[in-house]
Design a protein that fits this description.
Layout lengths: L6 E7 L5 H14 L4 E5 L6 H5 L8 E2 L4 E5 L2 H9 L2 H11 L15 H7 L2 H15 L5 E8 H8 L1 H12 L2 H7 L5 H24 L5 E8 L2 H16 L4 E9 L15 H23 L5 E5 L8 H8 L19 E7 L6 E7 L9 E5 L2 E6 L2 E6 L7 E9 L2 E8 L7
Parallel strand pairs: 1-5, 1-6, 2-4, 2-5, 6-7, 7-8
Antiparallel strand pairs: 3-4, 9-10, 10-15, 11-12, 12-13, 14-15
């Protein structure tokens, strides 16, 4: 790993709001300013090539001296990484046929469990992003993500994979398996451990608040803003840092030339009505998003396709290269503190940054040393601080932008 990994900026937004266009425009702007930039898409719809006006870049392709582009095909990655896994397992089974019974505990754990149900395809895409960032070849890696709901699922896959594997085959059972002579089990343990090592690496990279951020793209209408609030809530729950919100496709302001009468035609009144409505939406968004940076981009007349058109778009909005502001970039995601008392009479508090969450969607559970927090269709499994593992949950509430969970010591396990 290089001494300092390159920055990663992920672009996420509701389908149709221009996420791919703004990701590409930001990449062009950053490269023009002198940064070495890789623009990579994990959206399997493959619209990045259309926006750039180039053939589909299935390999890393230079567009300019400092700008490279890549469309990741995660289906191909899955096929390449796991081609032959079934054959290896069959070979291992044949090799160790005399050492285990046909009813081995491996029966029923097929390769498909690791390649389909788990979302390994998503993990492989994220692992490629991490490799690009760690390669030292770029200053900035800009990631064009699929539509928001799909993006949240992909970005939450490390937690999901880790949780699924631990439930399917807990670590203590895997360690017992490696002491035996069943070669198929030994191979499967090796695969699982490699997957978990990749999961940990990806999770650490995504949660690196100094180098990884998310730009959320939306449009100035009620439906898109409501979806944006859910996206922001999901990103906070996943522990990802939001660098800012970009409101795209605003109707340009038009002032009549000096000395000329104000246009009062039906078309002009219609445009003025749209402008006023969009201005109200942007104003409300700024007031309701917990101090997040909100920038705007006006709609252009011609469809922005190609480097020149994208460069013109990037020049029109401040923050196009991902500059952060506001409280979002510095808010601690999870903080644990002693609220009151001592010994078994103590009350501990876990504060989790969770802005804009719909209270009716909030759920909370406890599984051994973890708590399960769900909101707006996203769930996160949080490993408790050591002091909280000997406690029981005695209440939870939303306090502004924070979920507050209170714990009290369990007398049965609390040291005296």
């Amino acid at each position: 790993m290089p001494e300092q990994r390159s920055r990663v900026q992920l672009f996420v937004g509701k389908g149709g709001v221009g996420t791919t266009t703004l990701a590409a425009a930001t990449a062009v702007s950053a490269a023009t300013s002198g940064a070495r930039v890789l623009l990579v898409s994990i959206d399997q719809a493959g619209s990045l090539a259309d926006v750039l006006g180039v053939p589909n870049p299935r390999t890393t392709t230079p567009l300019t001296e400092r700008l490279y582009v890549r469309q990741l095909d995660t289906s191909a990655l899955l096929e390449d990484k796991f081609r032959g896994l079934s054959g290896l397992i069959d070979a291992a089974g044949t090799f160790g046929a005399g050492d285990h019974e046909h009813g081995s505990s491996f029966e029923g754990l097929e390769p498909e469990e690791l390649t389909g149900s788990l979302g390994i395809q998503d993990m492989l895409g994220l692992a490629e992003i991490v490799d690009f960032s760690d390669s030292g070849d770029y200053d900035l890696v800009i990631v064009d993500c699929p539509a928001a709901a799909e993006a949240l699922r992909i970005l939450g896959s490390p937690s999901m994979v880790s949780e699924y594997l631990e439930r399917l085959w807990p670590r203590h059972r895997r360690m017992v398996a490696v002491t035996g002579t069943d070669m198929r089990l030994l191979l499967l343990v090796s695969v699982v451990e490699r997957v978990l090592a990749s999961v940990d690496r990806i999770a650490a990279h995504l949660s690196d608040r100094a180098n990884t951020s998310v730009s959320v793209v939306t449009s100035a209408d009620g439906v898109s803003v409501a979806a944006t609030r859910r996206t922001l809530s999901g990103l906070a729950l996943a522990g990802l840092r939001v660098g800012g919100i970009v409101v795209n496709n605003l109707v340009p302001q038009f002032n009549s030339p000096a000395g000329k009468a104000v246009d009062d035609s039906p078309a002009a009144r219609w445009l003025a009505s749209i402008q006023a409505s969009q201005a109200l939406v942007v104003d409300e968004l700024r007031k309701s998003t917990d101090g997040m940076s909100v920038t705007t981009v006006e709609r252009v007349c011609a469809e922005p396709v190609g480097l020149a058109a994208l460069g013109e778009i990037a020049a029109t909005f401040e923050g196009g290269t991902g500059t952060d502001s506001g409280t979002v970039g510095t808010a601690d995601n999870i903080v644990v503190s002693l609220e009151s008392g001592t010994g078994v009479d103590s009350v501990y508090v876990m504060r989790m940054y969770l802005p804009l969450v719909d209270p009716s969607s909030l759920s909370l559970g406890r599984v051994e040393d973890d708590v399960l927090v769900g909101a707006d269709g996203v769930r996160r499994r949080v490993r408790l601080a050591s002091v909280l593992r000997r406690c029981v949950v005695n209440g939870a509430e939303l306090d502004g932008s924070y979920l507050i969970i209170r714990f009290s010591p369990d007398p049965a396990v609390w040291p005296v």
